[in-house]
Structure formats: structure tokens, C-alpha cells
Amino acid sequence: MQILFRNTALPISFASHRRSIIIALIIVSCVCYFMTVSPQGGYLSSKILSTERSIYKDSTGVLDVEQMDETLLDLAPSAESKPSHSFGNIIPHDPSTSHRANATLLMLARNSDLDGVISSVEQLEAKFNRKFNYPWVFLNDEPFSYEFKRRVKVLTNGDVSFGLIPHETWVQPPWIDEERARRGRNMLTQDGVIYGDSVSYRNMCRFNSGFFFRHELLTPYKWYWRVEPDVRFYCDLEYDPFVFMEDHDKIYGFTISMPEWESTIISLWSVVKEFILDHPEYVSPNNSMSFISDDAGDSYNMCHFWSNFEIADMDFWRGEAYTKFFNYLENTGGFYYERWGDAPVHSIAAALFTRKDQLHFFKDIGYKHAEFSHCPQGRQWREGHCSCNPNDSFDFAENSCLRHFMRLDDDWMFG
Ligand SMILES: Nc1nc2c(ncn2[C@@H]2O[C@H](COP(=O)(O)OP(=O)(O)OP(=O)(O)O)[C@@H](O)[C@H]2O)c(=O)[nH]1
Ligand SMILES: *[C@@H]1O[C@H](CO)[C@@H](O)[C@H](O)[C@H]1NC(C)=O
Ligand SMILES: *[C@@H]1O[C@H](CO)[C@@H](O)[C@H](O)[C@H]1NC(C)=O
Ligand SMILES: *[C@@H]1O[C@H](CO)[C@@H](O)[C@H](O)[C@H]1NC(C)=O
Ligand SMILES: [Mg+2]
């Protein structure tokens, strides 16, 4: 099953070999169509289709299983779930199946995260991706073990790739003054800040801030959904959030927002302000400054989108504004001298360099990371069959930044 849904497009080099096959398949499809105009509907049609599939395969003997299944799926991409009439159309017009976004699911993980990885993938597959079959990309600063790949690949029908992170985009750069970095780590450790003394956590934050979207396994894609080990997805998602983002001209989607530990980003805001002064041209006239500042940009209020969940447009990170912004931050060494997180870095950029209507609160996606969750309310909770307690949602917490996001609506226009 691993390979069945891998490609929906015919590779051009196979096209001529397949012409006669396609003609034969059109005939098969027509036969299916007439056979399935029957009271039993879709279930019967898929049974017949799979029978036809194997008959056809036996009678040609030249195609391997992978090619065969891809070809059939081109013509009937939703054989299991859609009513029979779609088979008569050859190219189905159902909008839920005919358009897929240029998107991937993404997880950074260690081999030792395997149990948590399986748990997260299992849930996202069951709640969403079983119907959409988006590919997964897993990245690691060390090679994934055979066992890791074997256990993860089996969880999805989508394509799965496992990538190694280039050394120079992961480790502390040689120009960083290690003595100064060590003083910074000691200071945070004394303050009792989580991961205060961790270099690998800093590597991770810097990689997620400036490099993941340039990894060769991600450059083929525009959209990503970031997933972490050991998160929870509470609700069924019946629509495609990537297509939603595309159709509504969105750039960045989140579920939970909260304040950052101030001591991890002591100098970040002053660097941001310098950047804005140097490059006012990148700041959107309809920015979300009031999400990240309570005094019109003088100081940072620490609010950020919690980046362990992100559905976003990598072309924004790859664009001129963010590229210059990241390089500006990188050159200060703040990722190592302090402990700048990818969450405030992403959030500040998304708030300043996009229009506020390009940020999206996925209030219908029930999600939990560590001890914080977002649970949909009312109709969305019922229709999503959500397993979370709607009363237990970080949205209502004193230190949630959701009200800062909501007040963007009040400023002017829409959110
Ligand atoms: N390959 C690799 N992945 C890492 C490393 N450190 C963190 N990650 C991954 O980066 C993401 C964030 O790391 P976490 O340790 O979960 O950090 P966090 O979410 O801020 O903190 P928690 O509340 O502990 O989850 C997760 O997907 C981790 O699996 C590392 O050293 N190597
Ligand atoms: C997907 O998006 C990436 C990044 O924008 C782009 O380079 C690539 O050509 C796109 N692929 C398709 C099939 O549109
Ligand atoms: C900003 O919002 C205003 C008010 O809705 C709108 O008229 C204007 O076109 C927007 N500007 C940009 C650059 O999007
Ligand atoms: C949620 O809170 C309300 C009011 O406090 C209470 O009446 C209700 O029973 C709670 N629901 C659940 C599912 O806990
Ligand atoms: Mg985590």
C-alpha cells in the first residue's frame, strides 16, 4: 500500500508506453460505470473496480504493480469512498479530490522519539491524512535508523521521505564566541529556564528559524504542516487546510499562542527594531503589530504563535523579507548567546511582513502539545467529533495571547 498513492501525475517518460493502457482503462472505467449504476452504489463499485484491477493486471503482464495502481488512481482517485458516477467522468470533478495543494507534512525528530512520532503520525493520519494522502517528510541531524523508518512508513499511504540535515545548518557556527555562548547558557540555567543549558535545543531553534525550508526534501513544496512527536489531534478534519490557506490567500496558520520567556530573548526586540528601521519597505501596511506589541512597537509583549504547530507557506520564509530578516538576526549570534526560539522569530516576521488577514487561527483543529491544548467550541466541537473537553482550552487561559490576536479584528477591517 505504501506506493499506491505516491504520485497522482503520470511521469512524462512513461506516457507513451501508457497510451494503449489508458485506452484500455477508459473501457474498464466505462464498464465499471454501467455495472455500478446500481442500488449498492459506491461499495459495490469499489469491489468491482478492484476485481477489474487484478484481471487487467494479469492480462497485460508488462506493468508492475506500482505503475498499474498509479494509473488506475489517475482515473479514479477516490475508488474507496466516492459514489460510482465519478468513474464515468474519467477526470473527476469533485473539488475535494481534484485539487491537491503543493504541500507536505513535516516532522523533525530523533531516533529516540520513535514512540512519540508514531503516536502523532497515527493520529494525524486517522483524523485527516487518511483521506488526503499528503506526503510526510522527516528530518534528523543524524541518520534515521532502519527500525525508525520501518515503523513510520507503515503508518501512511502517502509518500514518506527521511532526510539528513546538513551539518552546517544544524551545529553552532564556528564564528560564535563559545565563551560568550557559555555565559549565556549559564545565565539561563541559573534562572531555571527550560533548555537553558542546551546547545542542541538552540541548534533546533535556529534550524527551524532559518533552514528547514531550504532542505532539499522540502524545496519541492510550498506548504507544510509542522508536527511534533507526542502531540495530540482531537478532531476529525474533513477539509483540506492547505487548500483553505491557498484559496484564502493565507500565509501562516496556528492553533495556540502564548508569551515567550523574556530572559531567552533579551535583545531580540531591539534587533527587530533596527531591522525595521533599515528595511521599512518589508513591513506590511496592514501588519499585526498590535498582536506582538502593546505600545505600537516600542516594546515586545512576548506574544507568539506556538510553532510546534504550524500550517504555513514556505515561500514566505524563502522570500526576500524573511531571508534578510533571518540573516540579520543570525549575524547577532542571538540564537546561541541567548536562546532565541523559532516561535518568536517566526511570529514576529509573520506579524510584520504579512497582512493581518493572511494569518489564520485554526480554531477547528483540536490540538495538544505538552500540557497546553486548543479545543474547538460548539458546532465545530460536535461536528469534528472532538475528544477534548471544550472547557479545557488554553484559549481561555489568562496568559493566552488569543485576545491579542482577536483585537486585530477591531483595529480595522477583518482578521
Ligand atoms: N533530530 C533532532 N530533533 C530534535 C532535537 N531537539 C529537538 N528536536 C525536535 O524538535 C522539535 C522540538 O523539540 P522539543 O524537544 O519537542 O522542544 P519543545 O517542543 O520546545 O519542548 P517540549 O515541551 O519538551 O516538547 C521536536 O520535533 C523534536 O523532536 C535534536 O537534537 N535532534
Ligand atoms: C511547489 O512549490 C514549490 C515552491 O514554491 C515550487 O518550486 C514547485 O515548482 C511547486 N510544484 C508544483 C508542482 O507546483
Ligand atoms: C490595508 O487595509 C485597508 C483597509 O481595509 C485596505 O483598504 C488596503 O487596501 C490594505 N492595504 C494593503 C496593502 O493590503
Ligand atoms: C463546562 O463548564 C460549564 C460551566 O462551568 C459546565 O456547566 C459544564 O458542565 C462543563 N462541561 C464539561 C464538558 O466539562
Ligand atoms: Mg515539543
Would you mind describing this structure in some detail?
This protein has 415 residues and is α/β, with parallel strands linked by helices. It folds into 2 domains: 12-96; 103-411, Spore Coat Polysaccharide Biosynthesis Protein SpsA, Chain A (Alpha-Beta Complex), CATH 3.90.550. Helices cover 44% and strands 11% of the residues. The protein has helices spanning 12-15, 19-36, 41-60, 65-75, 95-98, 114-132, 146-153, 178-190, 199-210, 241-247, 268-278, 289-292, 314-318, 320-332, 334-337, 342-353, 378-383, 402-411; strands at 103-108, 136-140, 160-164, 223-227, 232-233, 252-254, 257-259, 303-305, 310-313, 359-361, 367-369, 372-374. Strands 3-2-1-4-9-6-10 form a 7-stranded mixed beta sheet. A 3-stranded antiparallel beta sheet has the order 5-11-12. A two-stranded antiparallel ribbon has the order 7-8. The structure holds guanosine-5'-triphosphate, 2-acetamido-2-deoxy-beta-D-glucopyranose (NAG) (3 copies) and magnesium ion.
Named CATH architecture of the largest domain? Alpha-Beta Complex
Write down the Rg: 24 Å
> Approximately how much beta-strand content do the residues carry?
5-15%
Structural class: alpha/beta
Spans of at least 5 consecutive residues whose pLDDT stays below 50 are 1-17, 20-28, 30-95
Mean pLDDT score, rounded?
Answer: 83
Percent range for helical residues? 40-55%
Instruction: State the major sheet.
Output: 7 strands, mixed
**Oligomerization category of the chains in this entry:** single chain
The number of domains: 2
Q: What's the arrangement of strands in the largest beta sheet?
A: 3-2-1-4-9-6-10
**What distance separates the N and C termini?**
42 Å
Question: Given the C-alpha coordinates, what overall shape results?
Answer: globular
**What small ligands are held by the chains?**
guanosine-5'-triphosphate, 2-acetamido-2-deoxy-beta-D-glucopyranose, magnesium ion
Please provide the count of β strands: 12
